[in-house]
Amino acid sequence: MNSDKFLDRAHDIQDTYGYIPEGEIDKMAKEFDVPRAKVYGSIRFYSMFYTEPTGKYIIRVCDSLSCHINDSKSIVDSIKNYLGIDDGETTENKKFTLEVVECLGHCGEGPVMMVNDEMYTHVSKNMALDIIKDCT
Amino acid sequence: MSEKYFLKENMEKNVSDYDFSAFKKALKMGQNKVIKEIEDSGLKGRGGAGFPTGFKWKLASQQEADLKYFICNGDEGEPGTFKDRLLMEDSPVKVLEGIMIGAFAVGASQGYIYIRGEYAKPIKIFNKIIKEAKKEQVLGENIFGSDFSFEMKLIKGAGAYVCGDETSLINSIEGHRGISRIKPPYPIEKGLFDKPTVVNNVETLSCAAEIINQGSDTYNELGTENSRGTKLVCLSGDINEPGVYEVEFGSMTIREIIQEFGKGIKNNKELKFVIPGGISTSILSNDKIDIPYTYEDIEKAESSLGSGALIVVAKGHDLIDLMLNASRFYMDETCGTCFPCREGNRQVHHMLKKAMGKGIDHNKTELIKDIGKTIRLASRCGLGQSSLNFIGSVIDEYPNELLIGGVDNG
Amino acid sequence: MVKLEIDGQKIEVEEGTTILEASKKAHIKIPTLCYEENLSIFGGCRLCVVEIEGEDNLKPSCATMVQEGMVVQTHSPTVREVRKNLFELIIASHDIDCNLNCLTCSRSQNCDLREIAADIGVTEIRVPPLDKGYDVDESSFSIVREPNKCITCGRCIRKCEEIQGVGIFTTANRGPSTIVTTFEDKGIGNVECTNCGQCILACPTGALHEVYHYENVWDALHDKDKHVVVQTAPATRVAIAEPFGAEPGTVATGQMVAALRRLGFDKVFDTNFTADLTIMEEGTELIERINNEGTLPLFTSCSPGWIKFIEHQYPEYLDHVSSCKSPQQMFGAVAKSYYAEQHNIDKDDLVVVSIMPCTAKKFEAVRDEMKEDVDYSLTTRELSRMIKQAGIDIMNLEDEDYDQLLGVSSGAADIFGSSGGVMEAALRTAYEIITGTELDNIDFNNVRGLEGLKEGSVVINDMEIKVAVANGLGNARILLEKMKNGEEYHFIEFMACPGGCIGGGGQPLPASNEILEKRMEAIYDIDKNKKLRKSHENPMIKKIYEEYLGEPGGHKSHELLHTHYKERGI
């Protein structure tokens, strides 16, 4: 790609559509003058870029070691239970996508979760469900 | 004991409130003296590898090129590490100042700060800071009337731990897959867009700014011969008061840090071991932590200070579960390029998963160690080379517990 | 020069040499997987790691330059242990189990992994194979991809991108999900793949191979109602001996003909015949375009990989492409018309099989414009399989001749198999037809050789004809870009594969530069030793024009021997 604009463009598209559609990759390939496969491969390297539509809210729960020690698994389980989806899945109404992710950099305040850009710390099971219920 | 504030001095959030005294001082000192000052301070990179910062700058300044780049690595992501986030949130202007000092010293005219995509708040802050700095002409042409001109761009990462590796980060800025590059050539010779490039960690640059500000002598009075100054320690895990604490090197033992700052183990449990430098480092069991917090003492104990992430683990956890957790991290986060790292971490994860609740026998632990040796010796970047340190050290320390299921009841 | 020590041997090599290259000079073989001589260094497989005195970690010899005074151990105990462990991991990722085993693999005869295992001395595999569970990509008419066998060494990616300038493959995802795939996982057949098959030559495993048609050919051969004829492309005769242990460069034309007869083909013909015919048609087209101020330069059209490339990538230049069908398709058209009529064979009972050094020919044969003139197109590799399946000891067969008429050819046709050959053949004929005088020297040496881009000029009747030759699609792109920037030519030969058809994606493995050189030499030897060396002097070509086609470029020719192209987009 050889352009420091690539990630910006991809973020913009991701923010606009909630994922990076095929046609946009075609456009990026032309913009950056590389084979479209290369753009696709690069996009697919990053876990915050999606090539399929995701839910309106992406819930990311950290399960790296410090959070794991503080029982992040129980948070994950209760969300899974409540939404009826597994890690990496989206609810049928396309509202929520759940992801168990690695370290979110709030290891001193675990367990932590993010909903889209919002960070929540010291999350309990009930708190997690309340956060989800507040998403409209 | 209380924290030793060196780095935590002068925490400002707005460009207009900040006088950039260190940067102005640097302009007066000139490039060579700035580099000399940083070299004299003995500052080592705070990202984990510990490469001498002044030496890196010196090499970069000696490169002949029409364009040089200076990159601040804010892709913090190693489990247990959260000090760069704190600096980017609470003293962003000093981070900017550090970047400017470094760029001035090596002769770079274009700078980047690469912040991991999950750090929404720091990203927002730096967007604002860069805009403000441009408006206040802290960035741009002939800064503060000098002949130094410098532009900055924020790059928002997109969820890939490995981009914290400097060559992966460079690939990522260029829009490529964030895989590490073959070294040599090193970024200092041929980095971003094939130009000489310096990549420094957020904490390193904050330190550099403060060293110029307070002088290397002040810095040198702190710490030990080989571990100068202070370090931000990220305390997490089974601990009463986790957080980021500034510790003067050599002034406290690891146990003291846990007791004094962390206020001891949560729920009155007993300490089992600590991971002294993030999950890419080997564990130190309870009987090995009465050592001064310095690079050299932790190395002598066969581990590493790494990024300064001190994860405290109490008794009662399923060791195989913890190993599996670390293993999943490396399996998922390897860039997938070099075979030992990709296939090795995948196989180790499979073995540990199978062992959950059942225990893991000697043949398997030997195999994991063979794989560990292979990854350490043959893989391409630091992520791979250190990926089995934690797991390997648990196997060495607690072979019998692993045999019976990994659950420690004592 | 740099002095260093490798495995106790003191050697001196040029600066900028890698340890791998230096070791080769010292006659030490270091195993490699992701390394390939013509591609950029990937440094991923790590099998080539070596121990360097004073270094903590092992270093990949493919990516590490020699340094003065370096002391290297290429097979130290640590290195050997690491390689063994590493190989276990690689094999586990290669997914060998009962369903997917070596016996049924496309690479059962020439597996790089097996060779490496033997070199390393692997004695145990302690990690179980991973079931990656990917679907086989069968979307293409030419190439099949079996992702479960892929070890993601990236050679196909680099070959497609760096050598061919196309780039249909990419690495996607990371960690354990790292895969080689196409844009949006669409599959090879649904993207801008040219079908050139160079990726197959690059693959060290059996993850890539051609779409097999040899079973269909067996069925046709065993069907008593079918009259099955076969044509053999120029480049096959200098490569078919290799899978049977012969030295690269062995010419086995007569033995291949004999083997084809034993396989049961009713007639064994030669694509060379229609190569000569191509020269007549294309030469005429060139002369017409020059005389009538037609679109110039004229581009050759024999390489179907090249055709698909230009249809996808440079559709604005399609007017430049000769309307002549490729020799394979001309043969099919002539066989299904002239030959069928002459011998009173019902077209439906006539099966035309071609043996090609090419995978793109499979796609070409099923293009709508081609009307099923060629029923099955087999690669040289597939033919070698059939010969083995039939237990034919080809190397000990007596030479036999091609069948008459469609089996007679000039040396100009043979050199079609090598880059520059079509150009040279065309010049031999065009010169003599235009000037009416005989060429003194018919060897056009400046268009010969493995070099990717060649240029030259020929003066015909006071007119300087500027010609160029590109082999490898990456070079084709360079040449087209040169044209875009104003460079002018009259006639350009394009071949999709490096070296031309001798390096085709359907040729036997391995296919190193050295082997390509030998095949190329063999091709020119055939030409040199033939009496008949100009297409227009082929008596059977004269005959077919007299009896059937009329004149080159005439009505009948256009109906049978010419075609058109379409813009495909990306």
Protein architecture, described:
The complex is a heterotrimer of chains A (136), B (410) and C (570). Chain A folds into two domains: 6-43, no CATH class; 57-133, Glutaredoxin (3-Layer(aba) Sandwich). In chain A, 42% of the residues lie in helices and 13% in strands. Chain A is built from six helices and four strands, in the order αααβααβββα. Chain A has helices at 6-17, 22-32, 36-43, 65-69, 72-83, 125-133; strands spanning 57-62, 96-101, 113-115, 118-120. In chain A, helix 2 packs across helix 3 (36-43). In chain B, strands 6-5-9-7-8 form a five-stranded mixed sheet, sandwiched between helices. The longest helix of chain B is centred in the C-terminal third of the chain and has 17 residues, at 339-355. Chain C is α/β, with parallel strands linked by helices. Chain C is globular, with a radius of gyration of 25 Å. In chain C, strands 2-1-5-3-4 form a five-stranded mixed sheet, sandwiched between helices. In chain C, strands 11-10-13-14 form a four-stranded parallel sheet, sandwiched between helices. The chains are: A alpha+beta (136), B alpha/beta (410), C alpha/beta (570). The interface between A and B is large, with 40 and 54 residues.
Topology overview:
The complex is a heterotrimer of chains A (136), B (410) and C (570).
Chain A: H1 6-17, H2 22-32, H3 36-43, E1 57-62, H4 65-69, H5 72-83, E2 96-101, E3 113-115, E4 118-120, H6 125-133
Parallel strand pairs in A: 1-2
Antiparallel strand pairs in A: 1-3, 3-4
Chain B: H1 21-29, H2 31-41, H3 53-62, E1 69-74, H4 83-90, H5 92-106, E2 110-115, H6 120-135, E3 151-156, H7 166-173, E4 197-201, H8 202-214, H9 216-220, E5 230-237, E6 243-248, H10 254-261, E7 271-275, E8 284-285, H11 295-300, E9 309-314, H12 319-333, H13 339-355, H14 362-378, H15 382-385, H16 389-397, H17 399-403
Helix pairs in contact in B: 1-5, 1-8, 2-3, 2-5, 4-5, 5-8, 12-13, 13-14
Chain C: E1 2-6, E2 9-13, H1 19-25, E3 49-52, E4 59-60, E5 71-73, H2 77-93, H3 112-120, E6 143-145, H4 155-163, E7 169-172, E8 179-182, H5 198-202, E9 208-210, H6 214-222, E10 227-232, H7 253-263, E11 267-270, H8 271-291, E12 298-299, H9 304-313, H10 327-342, E13 350-356, H11 360-365, E14 376-379, H12 380-389, H13 411-414, H14 421-435, E15 453-460, E16 463-471, H15 473-484, E17 491-495, H16 513-528, H17 539-549, H18 555-561
Parallel strand pairs in C: 1-5, 10-11, 10-13, 12-17, 13-14, 16-17
Antiparallel strand pairs in C: 1-2, 3-4, 3-5, 6-9, 7-8, 15-16
